[in-house]
Amino acid sequence: MEWGIAPRAMTGHSLGEFVAAVVSGVMSREDGLRLVAARGKLMQQMERGAMLSVRLSEERISAFLSGDAQLSIAAINSPTLCVVSGPIAKIEGIEKRLEAESIGCRRLRTSHAFHSPMMDPMLDAFEAEVQRLRSELRRSRTFPA
Q1: How far apart are CA 81 and CA 116, in angstroms?
Q2: May I ask the CATH class of domain 50-119?
Q3: What does the alpha-carbon distance between residue 6 and residue 19 come to, in Å, rounded to a whole number?
Q4: pLDDT tops 60 at residue 143
Q5: Which distant-in-sequence residues (6+ apart) come within 8 Å of 15 by Cβ?
Q6: How is the chain classified by DSSP, letter by letter?
Q7: How many C-beta neighbours within 10 Å does residue 54 have?
Q8: Nearest to residue 94, comparing CAs of 74, 119, 121, 124?
Q9: What is the pTM assigned to this prediction?
Q10: ∠ CA 13-19-23 to the nearest 5 degrees?
Q11: Where exactly are the structural domains of the chain?
Q12: pLDDT of residue 9
């Protein structure tokens, strides 16, 4: 954009969704920062977990997860690179299984199992923060009805 190139559409994943919303004018920088800070605070209050980058397709890693509801695919970064997220002990277990089969994987340096059901307990509180912001914007008449 600094070079004069204007995007027609923007998208993002995780924090990138907020960046896309701010850059595209969906929300102000201040409102985006407020929501990002609230989201981060809520996420840090969740039970600790882990994330593992795995050099497998979604289909192949799904077979390793074998219906374990505590493990989830947090991201599909390419046709052959996924991230699995879940409780630390479960991630350690799948990491050992993958390494035993010489499948490339690497633990991500995270404190929690982001993009997994382990984040679900914070959703109501985050939705309440979004609704507070929305109400404030409506009262100040800077938000469409």
Answers
A1: 17
A2: alpha beta
A3: 15
A4: no
A5: 36
A6: -TTS---S----STHHHHHHHHHTTSS-HHHHHHHHHHHHHHHHTSPP-EEEEESS-HHHHHHHHTT-TT-EEEEEEETTEEEEEE-HHHHHHHHHHHHHTT--EEE---SS-TTSGGGGGGHHHHHHHHHHHHHHHHHTT-S--
A7: 22
A8: 74
A9: 0.83
A10: 135
A11: 1-45, 50-119
A12: 87
Q: What is the pLDDT of residues 74-91, one digit of tens each?
A: 999 999 999 999 999 999
Pairing of strands 105-107, 72-78: unpaired
Hey, how many other C-beta atoms are within 10 angstroms of the C-beta on 87? 18
Give the full edge-to-edge strand order of the sheet including 105-107: 72-78, 81-86, 50-54, 105-107
As given in the structure block, the two tokens for residue 45 are 């209050």
Block residue for tokens 């995780």: 14
Amino acid in the structure at residue 24: S
